[in-house]
Write a structure and sequence with these properties.
InterPro entries: Glutathione_peroxidase, GPX_AS, GPX_CS, Thioredoxin-like_sf, Thioredoxin_domain. One of its GO terms (molecular function) is peroxidase activity. The protein is of the alpha+beta class. It has a single domain, classed as Glutaredoxin (3-Layer(aba) Sandwich). It contains 4 helices and 6 strands. A 4-stranded mixed beta sheet has the order 4-3-5-6, sandwiched between helices. Strands 1-2 form a two-stranded antiparallel sheet. A hairpin with a 5-residue loop joins strand 1 and strand 2. The longest helix has 12 residues. The mean pLDDT is about 95.
């Protein structure tokens, strides 16, 4: 299996293959609109603006699994992200990112890049997975790791 084998639905319900992103460095993030880490949307957008023209994409996957901090509809989520944080990077339909109901993409990411002490479970909103341009999952970053802290790592991968 490869990251490029997975299908996902955009926030508007259109199915896309992650193979559409082949050759790009990806930052895949589970997000939420009512979380203490929600301001990271702004930092993610800044990161996206800096690198989007250099084969880089951020893929945002809303999830309501952590204290129901993403209760809205796809339309609500998209509007919130655009109005409050200027988000233009791709957003996808709300999914589960942990447990038996986790989307297969997040099951794969979690196994490829375990967290602290080898744990595979996604522990909270704004967990970030960095994928290189060959589709290899490079690293997982904790929710508290702000987007600006990833800038130099992404810059190195793009060289």
């Amino acid at each position: 299996m490869s990251i490029y084998n997975y299908q996902v639905n955009t926030i508007r319900g259109e199915q896309v293959s992650l193979s559409d992103y082949q050759g790009k460095v990806l930052l895949i993030v589970n997000t939420a609109s009512k979380c203490g880490f929600t301001p990271q949307y702004t930092g993610l957008q800044e990161l996206y603006e800096k690198f989007k023209d250099h084969n880089f994409e951020i893929l945002g996957f809303p999830s309501n699994q952590f204290k129901e901090q993403e209760p809205g509809s796809s339309e609500d989520i998209e509007q919130f992200c655009q109005i409050n944080h200027g988000v233009t990077f791709p957003l996808f339909e709300k999914i589960d990112v942990k447990g038996n109901t986790a989307h297969p993409l997040f099951q794969y990411l979690s196994k490829q890049a375990p967290g602290v002490l080898g744990s595979t479970a996604v522990k909270w909103n704004f967990t970030k997975f960095l994928v290189d341009s060959d589709g290899k999952v490079i690293q997982r970053f904790a929710p508290a790791t702000t987007p600006d802290k990833l800038e130099h790592i992404i810059d190195d991968l793009l060289k």
